[in-house]
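User: Structure please.
Assistant: Input sequence and predicted structure:
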Amino acid sequence: MASFVAGQQGKEPAFESYPVRVESKTARAIDFRNSPGASKFRTRLREAIKGDVNFAGRYIISGWGCGSGCSQMAIIDAKTGRVFMPDALAGVSAWYYDVEDDYEVYTYKKNSRLLVVRGAPGPMTDGDTEQEPGSYYYEWRPNRLRLIKFVPRPKPKNA
């Protein structure tokens, strides 16, 4: 699947191509009972649920560091309080060379199902991921991320 996605040609996916209606938040607390793994991040998730919807119409994305050059994220359903922790967000190793000044590891919008991750996503093993660094374009489907395109990182100018 990854080689198929990496081999796709054409423009990078646009947020406007994945529209969604923004709903109001109704959850007041995190549903730890139905959110495997979420209890390890209680403080961060409890703070996040206090905020407004910021992704895919009814979700709140929250993130935290997991070491030098590493970050993790969770997606909270703002209607139910349930937390989703996709493997792709369980330790993104960021890359920093040959990128624009306004570089962001994660890019998302509250009115779009598109999530862009720049780095090497996936669970960290021995301080590294098995994924190739680059820009990963995911579509949020009910309760999961679907990889729709991968663009390898640019080679360093000095290489």
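Strands lie at 59-65, 70-77, 83-84, 92-93, 106-108, 114-119, 134-141, 144-152.
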